[in-house]
Amino acid sequence: MDPRTGRTLWETPRPDFASSYATPTLWKRGGSEDVVLAGSVRLVGYNLKDGQERWWARGLEAVSVCPTPVVGDGHLYAMSRSFAGNNMPPFPQMLADMDPNGDRRIARQEGKGLLGNKSIFDATDTDHDDIVTEQEWNAALAFIAKGDYGIFAVRAPGRGDLTDTHVVWKQKRGVATVPSPLHFRGRLYAVQDGGRVTCFEAKTGKILFEQERLGADGEYYASPVCANGNIYFASTRGVVTVIEAADTLKVLARNDLGERIMATPAIADHKLYVRTATHLWAFGK
């Protein structure tokens, strides 16, 4: 959109993407600029000028891809956690619990458990008639089976499918469900629930330390941020943990703000801003 007028400059349909929670990333390389999006199964680069799909790389989950891709050291890094789609039940098993009238279809009002989730039902009900058939369920299982997971690096792309030609490295251990990875001083950091941090060498994917404990439990929805040589992690239990940016884990401080934290802290004007359940905090001079 034109930010001055609100006029739509281009719009690109994404029918193959069941879900995407990631924020778009701008990847500038010389005279080339792409808008990069992580979503179901694929990481995709779109031409900034007209929205045309330029390139893609497989390697993401089929459902609920949350982390936003990040850029650093000439590469782009994408991450998604395993959805464990292979554990999805076959349609006859679904019917046993959700087909009281025996018509071998699952209506929206009959759906419970997995299909009681509105977003999952809507994604499976491809003809939007408020009924999931065996054909639609099997199609959903086939789509989920295409998913992968892990964290991987993509070098400056060309055109088309880059999965086999431009993925520099990939790791499947230590990846986060919701928070985006952080690139800082040649390293990538990812934080998992329970306060487990993994650090990768950005250029090679070498694991420098894996699932080391921050000492602050809880879930982690906020992405890590960096400033002054330190990394900041905020847990849902309200604890902000500070570590040194290094090849080994060194916890410098833990700060309990006493309220739930869901949002990623922001850094501006030499201050760290943290939004908790009922307050906005500013730390700095």
Q: Please outline the major beta sheet.
A: 5 strands, mixed
Order of SSEs = EEEEEEHEHEHEEEEEEEEEEEEEE
Low-confidence stretches: none
Total domains, how many? 3
If helices are DSSP runs of H or I spanning 4 or more residues, what is the number of helices? Answer: 3
Report on the structure:
The chain is built from 3 helices and 22 strands. The protein has helices at residues 91-98, 118-124, 134-145; strands spanning 25-29, 32-38, 42-47, 53-58, 70-72, 75-80, 106-107, 131-132, 150-155, 160-161, 167-171, 182-184, 187-192, 196-201, 207-213, 225-227, 230-234, 239-244, 251-256, 266-268, 271-275, 280-284. Helix content is 9%, strand content 37%. By secondary structure, the chain is mainly beta. The chain has 3 domains: 1-83 and 147-172, Beta Barrel (Lipocalin), CATH 2.40.128; 86-140, Orthogonal Bundle (Recoverin, domain 1), CATH 1.10.238; 174-285, Beta Barrel (Lipocalin), CATH 2.40.128. It starts with 24 loop residues before the first strand and ends with a strand.
Short key terms for the protein model shown above:
285 residues, 22 strands, Lipocalin, four-stranded antiparallel sheet, globular, mainly beta, Recoverin, domain 1, 3 domains, 9% helix
